[in-house]
Specification:
This protein has helices spanning 35-49, 57-68, 74-92, 102-114, 125-145, 172-181, 186-198, 202-206, 251-263, 278-292, 301-312, 317-324, 328-334, 340-355; strands at 3-5, 11-18, 24-32, 213-214, 219-222, 225-229, 232-236, 245-248. By secondary structure, the chain is mainly α. α12 (317-324) crosses α13.
Length: 356
């Protein structure tokens, strides 16, 4: 914002800035008797109108991205980037950071809570909480490093829930009824076979290539994950470092995959075997449930089903965690209700110890 001298000997300041909606504005202030007074006014105007917190939200997101992206895993950032672009910026993008109030947060939350997809389904409580936390993280960054007086999200009730709904899973018999119903489509059948009998995540399944299978040793290497972000197929690192693992697969599944891959002679070693979307698998899940009469569960619940199967077979939390790419404490905590007999065994052992 340069200072100019008028023909009558006074000074004036001319500047450009963006208002709270991101619209470009022009400001001229005239009549300063000295250049120093004009410069002092310019300084005050800059601090009150042109500070970082007076930029549009979408512009601050660029600042946030520049400073956060190098510090986190690429996979994590891509998820954050999608949530910001799709669920947050469309509402707040042109609003000035310093003028976003708690009531704006509430209105945004209400829009997301009321959202329904084409099947009439709302966002899950855990997804709503994830979105809410991401917006809060942006404002926390502004508060911590750019002197935003207060994070407006902190004054509202957090939407969603950090806990998912009741854990639902299939027994072996339910899965076998379902798998028979989708056997007419080999791609669907083999996808669900891998999900149920190995416990891999949906994104891990969709990233698999023929090269990931060692059919001689009956092992599956999990080293990557699939997402579709902004309409683009994207292969990323797995969810956590623990997720990179080798899984021994049962002989029957190894032979099923051998036969399936021999049929798929169109695939090169590093082509995706299941070149479909998550929506496709959800549709096939619905089709199979309707045809078999088993209760409807989510794709991710097949992972729960695998864990519950292994618990019932007597495997330890540590062994199960290694197989599914979790920490053993996570298995113990999340599936504690499936270990009821262990509590009885502990009590009986203590009884025997005391009486002995």
């Amino acid at each position: 914002m340069p200072v100019y001298r008028s023909e009558n000997g006074t000074f004036y300041v001319q500047c450009f800035y963006r208002d709270g909606r991101g619209t470009k504005r022009h400001k001229t202030k005239r009549g300063f008797p000295t250049e120093l007074e004009a410069l002092l006014w310019e300084k005050d105007f800059r601090s009150s109108h042109l500070g970082t917190m007076d930029m549009a939200f979408k512009d601050f997101v660029e600042v946030y991205a520049t400073e956060i992206k190098p510090r986190i895993r690429e996979h994590t950032w891509m998820t954050k980037e999608y949530i910001i672009a799709d669920k947050i910026t469309p509402f707040f993008g042109n609003m000035r950071m310093s003028e976003i109030k708690p009531v704006d947060i509430v209105r945004w939350q209400n829009e997301l809570i009321e959202h329904r997809n084409k099947d009439g389904e709302p966002y899950s409580p855990t997804y709503l909480r994830t979105i809410n936390n991401q917006l809060s993280a942006i404002f926390n960054h502004a508060e911590r490093y750019y002197d935003l007086p207060q994070n407006p999200v902190s004054k509202t009730t957090r939407m969603g829930s950090s806990k998912g709904g009741e854990m639902v899973f299939w027994t072996k018999d339910e899965y076998l009824r379902f798998s028979e119903a989708v056997m007419d489509k080999p791609l669907s059948f083999h996808a669900f076979e891998l999900l149920y009998w190995t416990g891999i995540r949906e994104g891990e399944l969709l990233a698999l290539t023929p090269a990931d299978f060692d059919l001689e040793t009956a092992e599956l290497s999990v080293t990557k994950s699939y997402q579709r972000l902004r309409g683009v197929d994207t292969i990323t690192d797995p969810k956590t470092p623990k997720s990179i693992r080798k899984i021994s697969i049962p002989r029957f599944l190894n032979e099923e995959m051998r036969d399936f891959l021999e049929m798929r002679d169109d695939l090169d070693p590093h082509d995706r075997i299941f070149a479909v979307t998550k929506n496709f698998l959800s549709h096939e899940m619905k089709r199979g449930c309707e045809a078999s009469g088993v209760k409807r569960i989510r794709i991710h619940d097949l992972r729960h089903s695998h864990v519950s199967l292994l618990i019932n077979m007597g495997f330890t939390a540590f062994a199960i965690a290694e197989r599914v790419g979790h920490e053993s404490i996570d298995i113990t905590y999340r599936y504690a209700h499936l270990f009821p007999t262990k509590q009885v065994e502990m009590a009986n052992a203590l009884d025997n110890l005391r009486e002995g």
